[in-house]
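[RESIDUES AND BACKBONE]
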Amino acid sequence: MKRLAISLLILASFSFAAVYKNTTYPYNAVEIGGVTLSASTATTIDAKDQYRRYACIVNDSDAVVYLAIGITPNLNEGIRLNASGGSYEINDTNFTDMTIKAITAGTNKRVTYFIGRKTP
């Protein structure tokens, strides 16, 4: 019985490695960066882009940040990114090519991002 369990564990490990090795991503170009937000001013994180396939936005500040997609954000409304690491991900389950904007009440607050694009 113990030998069977070990054999299954080894088989599962090889299967996982094979799947992971052959993983393809829906994008072929990436952009990594950050944006500094000014108090109560909407700031564009990424403009409308038909080639964007993935985005991860992370609040790298000590204040709450609010995101809006396709519209201008308002304080205390929209997608809330909690302070010190709150994040939002755009992927194939909630895909959008609309403009992504952020706003915060604080001054000099930073939001970082990773964006994947599928270029022709």
In short: The first strand starts at residue 29 and ends at 37. The chain has one domain: 26-117. The first helix runs from residue 2 to 21.
